[in-house]
Amino acid sequence: MKDGQINMFPDIEFQGFWTSLDLPAETIIHLYKQHGTCEQFHSELKSDMDVERFPSGTFATNALVLALGSLTYNLLRSIGQDVLSGNDLPESKSVFRQRLKTVIQHMICLHHTWFSMHVNNVFPYFAATPGKPFLSVYSIGMPPHKKTTCPLLLQPVLSISEPIETL
């Protein structure tokens, strides 16, 4: 019965397997049922390593790209497994997220500071105070004693009049 109506003919499911393997039928069926796992890894490889579309029209170049992508994927996967099995993991996910946020924030703010310095050096009229090229483009008009902020995360980065130290 389907959707409240009696079927005129019964539903019959049939699965056929053609193979050249010399294995018992149960083993072949078991192997076939695991093909989804293989397809999942193949899908991850293609999406994570960005090889959905190959860059070249030549087979040799595409084979090299796929081989390098596979190597990279396997290395990253083994590194991930090693990290997950380590004893020095953070206590909780929130601690890890906080550390990750801090690192990314630091990188964004350093890039913002470099961009501000570069713009101020190329366009000196952005600097409100002569001789202080470290004034942020986003903080024009602020008194020099105030702190400038990273525009993306709104966290204090440096004082306007302080030179940036190299790492």
Brief digest:
One of its GO terms (biological process) is DNA transposition. The protein is mainly α.
Q: From the alpha-carbon coordinates, what is the Rg to the nearest angstrom?
A: 29 Å
* Morphology call: extended
Number of separate structural domains: 2
Let me know the average pLDDT. 66
* SSE class: mainly alpha
Residue stretches low in confidence (pLDDT < 50, at least 5 long) are 125-129, 131-164
Fraction of helical residues: 40-55%
Helix-strand topology string = HHHHEE
Q: For the largest beta sheet, what order do the strands appear in spatially?
A: 1-2
Query: Helical stretch count?
Result: 4
What is the strand content?
under 5%
Biggest sheet descriptor? 2 strands, antiparallel
Number of strands: 2
Distance between the termini: 74 Å
Domain Transposase IS4-like: 20-75
Protein name: Transposase DDE domain group 1
Pfam family, one: DDE_Tnp_1
GO molecular function: DNA binding; transposase activity
